[in-house]
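It would be a great kindness if you could assist me with a short task in structural biology. The full record is reproduced below for your convenience:
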Amino acid sequence: MTLVTLSATYGAGGSEVGPALARRLGVPFVDRLIPSEVATGLSAGLAVAHERDEHSQGMAARLLSSLAPIGQAFGADAPAADPLADREFREMTARVIFEHADGGRGVILGRAAAVVLRDDPRALHVRLDGPREARLRRAMRIQSIERPVAERRMLETDRARHAYVHHFHHADARDPALYHLLIDSSALDLATCVELIALAAEDRTRTLAQEARI
């Protein structure tokens, strides 16, 4: 059984490392499935799920405005909050993550999975990050975009992901205590990052198996 949660800043390679790691470990990759599965379980349906997902621009604006200094820097006009819909979304997202983790196999990208599964002893929690300039260069290369575009996306994406974790879970996605393994993925080839995480996950699985036999 191999279960990994993966958190990543913009340009750190999460969208590349996640699926590659899942293939390396022979487990499901869980990312885009989450919003549709959350929508299925929500009484409010698909619109609420997509509006509140961490990749939604509208939700990012509202979340950022809830963190005053960040919201002001972001300069976004946010839609009004709906606490009941937010709570339902948070609880349903956690339920979907728990369901995917139930079998003990998978790589779950984003959605504050490290916070949701922090009490699950089977999960290895990983954070990919790196210096801003190095991440910008990687994003420009991988996405074939100019620097101003990469800078804007970095500003929006990193702040939105931070706000998502803060708003729904009252946690800081940058807190090293949430993770077992932190990697400066800008200093390494992404294939090397995949291998490092895979080795750590396999070692954790062996350790848990040995402890279960004692």
